[in-house]
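Support request from a user on the community tier.

User writes: "When I paste my structure tokens into the form, the page sometimes reloads and wipes my input. The last time it worked, I copied everything first. Here is what I submitted, just in case something in the input itself triggers the reload:"
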């Protein structure tokens, strides 16, 4: 963030209504709330509510709008302050098993809360990188952690959303530095991971970045296919249905 120009801070991101600065402010706001810091009383204007869909979205938007008049230098100072305090919290008596409320409203243990925070921070880092043309950090521990969580949503997506028919199989081929092939079949209405089938009903070929964009709703399935960033081999209707149900992270 320190490397960005004043113009880059104000570039639009793939998060509707949010700039690069807003994405950064969102991360500060979440960590501040997890520290228990007092949030100023604030009423959003109608134009600030255009993309708010729920209580979580309302909290996130308040955190963002409250910081729109703050300079980038002071935002960086606040970020360093809250992350330092959060690291101190994690190092001194933080329980991995104690139940606590996460920002999305779920009651989870400490390990899950940290896992979700890694995902949120890394996903928004990628939003900022795409907006400013500073592509990078798509591999490594944080990226591997996020993609592992995304992989674990695929049985739900295929079984509950797509309703993959019994006997049908789907193969995901993720290309790039950390290539991966994952296949699923369906039995009794439940999708499960299987060994790679020789003749899958459908193959979906993409790189990890486009998989991230689809999973986070940053790109429409049609645009992904038209731009040749996703290739569907086999059952085209099934492939399109899978892509249209992949948005899992708001």
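"...and here is what came back when it finally went through:"
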């Amino acid at each position: 963030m320190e490397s960005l120009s004043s113009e880059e801070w104000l570039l639009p991101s793939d998060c509707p209504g949010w700039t690069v600065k807003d994405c950064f402010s969102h991360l500060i706001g979440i960590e501040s709330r997890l520290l228990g810091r007092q949030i100023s009383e604030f009423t959003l204007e109608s134009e600030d509510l255009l993309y708010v869909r729920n209580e979580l979205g309302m909290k996130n938007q308040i955190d963002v709008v409250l910081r729109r008049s703050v300079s980038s230098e002071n935002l960086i100072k606040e970020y360093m302050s809250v992350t330092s305090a959060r690291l101190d919290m994690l190092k001194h008596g933080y329980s991995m098993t104690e139940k606590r409320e996460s920002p999305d409203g779920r009651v989870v243990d400490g390990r899950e809360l940290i896992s979700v925070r890694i995902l949120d921070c890394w996903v928004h880092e990628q939003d900022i990188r795409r907006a400013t043309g500073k592509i990078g950090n798509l591999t490594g521990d944080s990226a591997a952690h996020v993609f592992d969580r995304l992989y674990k949503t695929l049985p739900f997506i295929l079984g509950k959303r797509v309703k993959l028919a019994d006997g049908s199989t789907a193969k995901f081929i993720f290309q790039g530095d950390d290539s991966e092939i994952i296949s699923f079949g369906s039995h009794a209405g439940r999708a499960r991971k299987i060994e790679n089938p020789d003749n899958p009903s459908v193959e979906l070929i993409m790189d990890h970045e486009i998989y991230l964009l689809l999973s986070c709703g940053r790109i429409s399935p049609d645009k992904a296919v038209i731009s040749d960033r996703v290739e569907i081999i086999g059952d085209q209707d099934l492939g399109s249905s899978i892509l249209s149900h992949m948005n899992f992270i708001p």
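Agent notes: The reload is a front-end session timeout and is unrelated to the input. The radius of gyration is 20 Å. Residues 175 and 250 are 25 Å apart (CA to CA). Escalated to web team.
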